[in-house]
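I'm stuck. Protein, please.
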Amino acid sequence: MNAQEIIGLFHPVIIQISTPHGTGTGFYVKEYDMIITNNHVVKESIDAVISGKLFEQVSSPVLFNDPKYDIALIQPLGGISFPELKLAPDSSVNDGDSVIAIGHPYGLSYTATEGIVSKSKRLHNGLNYIQIDAAINPGNSGGPLVNEKGQIIGMNTFIINNSNNLGFALPAEYIIESLNEYKLYTGKIAVRCPSCMNVVTSENIDGEYCPFCGAKVDLPVLKKEDDYKPAGANATIEKILTDLGKDVKLSRRGQNSWEIKEASATIYLNYNQNGFIAGDAFICRLPKMNIGAIYEFLLRENYTVEGISFSVNNQDIVLSTFIYDEYLTHDTGKEIIHNLFIKADYYDDYLIQNFSALPRVIDEV
């Protein structure tokens, strides 16, 4: 199979994952009816927001954590016809093999990079990893590493910081072992003890300790409170979004970032720890003709509108607002953010109808 065929084959099973702590990638394996990702992608979360080519964003429980192998299993949606793609055995990986790493680096959907297996077995912390030179970045974690036959030979897991394309994938043999360990507990919330490698559930756990060896284990579902409680400005922002009818759990893109859909516009809120909240609404795009007229309109509007301003990023027309956290209150923040939502929807339609601006291109989910 060529690279284009492989990437097209995998698009339906690649899953984008978000938690309050960041974003990552997962993939669905039909044989086990599970979404597989890295444990560090969903660490300490009792559920994760997932989305894919075949379904919209939803929140789904994290069923199983295996911290030793850095594997986690997420419950997939039922009633979806996913293609069947296979995990390949360890013996199918050799030095010099061509591979493709697929994932969502930095939140960018469906990015694939080609490379070769630099070393099929590289020992690290007691486990053998597949060392590859295919470029992988933050957000690729949990995505599949695929060979020329379209088989999943591993899961992209970590990189060496400040290195040049030095990545490591957990081999399929470890993934299969972890999946088989969980088979007897399918549907239950469980964790694999990193000390003795036995499976611990809420039914057999001894307080916070493994009933088999006594090692401390982390079973997030046993926490008395929700797994994530925002504080400070983050809590204020999420209360505002909730009051405006938005689902904050589906909007989170990390602890300090949110992505919200408002009609045809996409709004990004980011809390910069230097002390301000930035809201950027990406609306329509510049047309090929009559550009001078639309620029003149945007510049004139910037002198008349309050609390918001227009800018152009390449071809995107962006409507932005800023709030300094020291001045952020629920009421003022709600007024400013609500105004951004309303104006984004209004100007998107207005610019398309009156200046032949182009509708925003929607990225693949």
Remarks:
- The mean pLDDT is 89.
- The radius of gyration is 23 Å.
